[in-house]
Model the fold of this input.
Amino acid sequence: MFHVCQYRPLRLITQTSVSSVYLKLMLSRPVAFAQIWKSWFSSHSLVGSKNIILMGPPGAGKTTVGRIVGQKLDCPVIDIDDDVLETTWNMSVSEKLQDVGNEQFLEEEGKALLKFSASGSVISLTGSNPMHSAGMQHMKKNGIVVYLDVPTTVIMSRLKSMKVDRIVGQSPGISLKDILQFRKQFYKRWYDIRVLCGGDNTAEVVAEKVLDAVKRYQNSELETFISTRSSSSERSMEKTSHKYFSDIVVEGLAPDGGLFVPERGLPKFTAGEWQSLIEATYIERAQVILEGCIHPADIPASKLAEIIGTAYGENFSCSKIAPVRHLAGNQFLLELFHGPTASFKDFALQMVPHIFAYCIPRSCNYLVLVATSGDTGSAVLDGFSRLHDTDKQRIAVMNFFPEDGVSQIQKSQMIGCQKENAWSVGVKSDFDFCQTAIKQIFTNSDYTGFLTVEYGTALAAANSINWARLLPQIVYHASAYLDLVHQDIIPFGSPVDVCIPTGNFGNILAALYAKMMGIPIRKCICASNENNVLTDFIRTGVYDLRGRKLIPTFSPAVDILKSSNLERYLHLIANEDGQLVTQLYNQLEKQGHFQLQKDLLEKLQQDVVAGWCSEEECLAAIHSVYSTTGYILDTHTAVAKVVADRLQDRTCPIIISSTAHYSKFAPAILRALRIAEIKQNPLSQLHLLSSYSPLPPVHWGLLETLKKKGNEDHQVCAADMSMLMSCIETLIQNHFM
Done:
């Protein structure tokens, strides 16, 4: 048996030692004793009595990296292959494998792990250790498992150069590559921390990454969130009340009316780290990117993987989740409509409900409020209705939408998505009223306090004002770029432009965040419809709502005048000057306008350009693209296509975000395609479109939702705050009481 246990600060090695040298030094050389004492303090300052356990495929460099990490921490280094298995078996690992075969080898290897114990050490596992469940559970009890994630192509090349032609599990008809892919599921099951290792990373570089990752793992207090409206002096006074990811997911809106942003910004990936994701699936890319944005103290990697798998595993009709399709010339479409409710909102809202359910305390019920200009509502309702039954009992959602400001199919979809914990309320006003009303409700401490005391219910937000809504959107912008590299359209490092139809600035902000994290996006093009307040602002620096009235258009999801997420971007380019942001938005609230100072406008225009599209141009673009390619754009994507045609300089590819499926806007599409529009119900309109064998086909989820009967009813409310509050109380009483 191999055993290292700690009774006092000095580790005692009993029975079989890592190497007999350790025991001899401890017994006969006081200097060595002092070195080990020093070792204890240096390693324990980082991980305490826990071990750093390096895990990864054969050829990942675990042994070499482990030695370097151990040297830097001045602590013992244990290689399971050399110091445990071969010592226990009295034969080489390869001889043992040849002697007993694959299955028995894994069992013998696992038994050796179960008899092993150590503390304050750096341990390098074998490539097959993670395939033995009991052995790994034993190791994790006193260790931080670090996964050295090396691309399979790199591992294959290394093993070839090392002349390794067989590993555990390999047999005739099963290739080395197949085995490496098969093992990934076991690595992903056990790790606490992932370290991306590009093919050009030296062992020294990887060791530094390991140490940085362990430091991050041990220091969750470094990843806090602040309000866009808090000043530096206020933040220094608030150090005792840090806000973490799990806090701000639940709270949604900051108490001062601002939006939460990470105090230290988002992580920046190296070019090599991004390149290691080129061969990865969408789900794998999402896992890596979100691990960098969400501290494991808030959501452990294993739970995050479960959430991502649930969100994207079966709920999307396309296996690529967010495929990139060539449209024409240098234009590519990022198709974001393959989720259950046919819009880009599904990417966040299939995930956020599960994140929310994990983060909230169990002692309170929660009512999630959301305002929608069209697509968010059905996505929120669908996402929260997919929670486990126990979670649905304590989490409900209420969706407010402009009764006459969404398409008929969008309305039918929102009504059809109502479930026992998910309800829609039509408001006799526009989206801006709905969004402003929710913000006012959240900042009304008397009312929220009343709900908590009277009904034991707290409020939360699911709009893009909630930080958790933005993170999944960063993933698909990054993934689109990696897909172009994977398809050999561009080499990594070559720039692309992106063009995004937006009204609330959330989707384009996610692209800007992807750029900050290292994706080579050159320009973000903001595409507006006739409600072009954002375009005017980006061009002039003047945000002016005076005299503006919302214009209902064929692209209702961007029929927005008050752009919430713009506040986060202004806070970013103003170097986190919360006082300035507060001043600007107070002026907007009181006077209906504000003007950005010249230097900030120039900074903004380095990243963002903008244009807008008329209703006639929108319909003409749909007709033109269909006539030349057979592909049907939805109305929002058509807005982006018009603006992209106008503003791109054709020196690099441009990725146009296709934010919704055309099925949601059948009357406008029928009109654009010059098909005689007949007054039929939404389901009949979709059948009519389907008869033209369009590309892509009519959306499956919409057809299923519209076929449902018995969900035609919904509540309609006047544009009055007291009426909205009454609706909220009624739902709470019906669902929670």
Q: What stands out?
A: The longest strand covers residues 395-402. Residues 467-486 form the longest helix (20 residues). The chain has 34 helices and 22 strands.
